[in-house]
Amino acid sequence: MTTAAPRDARDGTGTSAGDGAGMRTVTCAGTAIDPGPRREVGARPDGAADPAPGDGPPAPGALPVVLLHGLRTSSTMWRAQVRALEAVGRRVVAPDFPGHGTRIDERFTRAGAVETVEAAVDGVGGRALVVGLSLGGYIGMAHAAAHPEQVAGLVAAACSTRPARVLVAGWALAARGIVRLPDHGAALNQLLVERVLPPSAAEDAGAGGFALHVVEDVLREVSACTPIEDLARIDAPVWLVNGRFDHFRGEERRFLAACRDGRLVVVARATHLVSLVAPERFTRAVLEALDELEHAPHLSASAAGRGPVGSR
């Protein structure tokens, strides 16, 4: 939800979560175990992304995808994923949260954001793979816990840290000062966007406008989120997807342990806005989630005790 200098990730007990190439996705069924190594996506020496699965026409009854954007951005941040998913025949919807994009004049509330997801899933048939980044990830977890019948699976990206009230209060204080600048922080926001995103991604992120005024409301609402408790209530498979240098990775092992049927995916060389800085590798993670949901539906019922999968 914000930008900061990269740092190594640590789990909830202060143990280093590790790093490096050749890591794997791991699964966990709600047990407080050391999940061991993870899969790191896109860690090829030549820097190229692995070919994405799912090419060709979709199977009958293919799951639709609902994409949930991050703080200050809008549905346009998902342009790369929408193009890629629609190219393989997926139905994709990316709604705007209250206070963002086409709904810039509305007041943001957590309840309103969850209702937005509920309406979006209803609009694509009542059940979908829900994919959220940062703010969208926290809202996605809250929605999945409240409306399990709508969620075939959840990709919660860049949101593996609890929004502690003290920390959020500090961010809110900073946001209050920034919005009082003559341009309401527009120049500072643009500078940050240009520094952390490739040009095409910066264009996509800004195409729907930046909701500079909404930050304080969002932080207040997000501080009441309970992601650990939400994850513990979700029966559907969950993919925690984080960039290697994401400052929101701090509790990814605790989040994974809370999942009844969870996987952790770390995207090599990526930062917080993983879908924007590594769009092909992020899309691959989404396609792999769809492939697993549609071709191995038994896995969610038999994940207990599973070892690492997807080694590269």
SSE blueprint and pairings:
Elements: E1 26-28, E2 39-41, E3 65-68, H1 79-87, E4 92-93, H2 110-123, E5 128-133, H3 135-146, E6 151-157, H4 165-178, H5 186-196, H6 199-206, H7 215-222, H8 227-232, E7 238-243, H9 252-258, E8 262-267, H10 274-277, H11 279-295
Parallel strand pairs: 2-8, 3-4, 3-5, 5-6, 6-7, 7-8
Antiparallel strand pairs: 1-8
Helix pairs in contact: 1-11, 2-3, 4-7
Pfam family, one: Abhydrolase_6
GO molecular function, one term: hydrolase activity
Keywords: Hydrolase
Query: Mind telling me the CATH class?
Result: Alpha Beta
**What gross morphology would you assign?**
globular
Provide the CATH superfamily. Answer: Alpha/Beta hydrolase fold, catalytic domain
Q: Count the strands?
A: 8
Please state the average pLDDT score.
78
Class derived from helix and strand content: alpha/beta
* DSSP helix fraction: 25-40%
Q: Remind me, CATH topology?
A: Rossmann fold
Which stretches are poorly predicted, pLDDT < 50 over at least 5 residues? 1-24, 26-59, 300-312
Terminal CA distance reads 30 Å
Give helix and strand order, one letter per element, not per position: EEEHEHEHEHHHHHEHEHH
Q: What number of domains?
A: 1
Tell me the Rg in angstroms: 18 Å
**Number of helical elements:** 11
Strand content is 5-15%
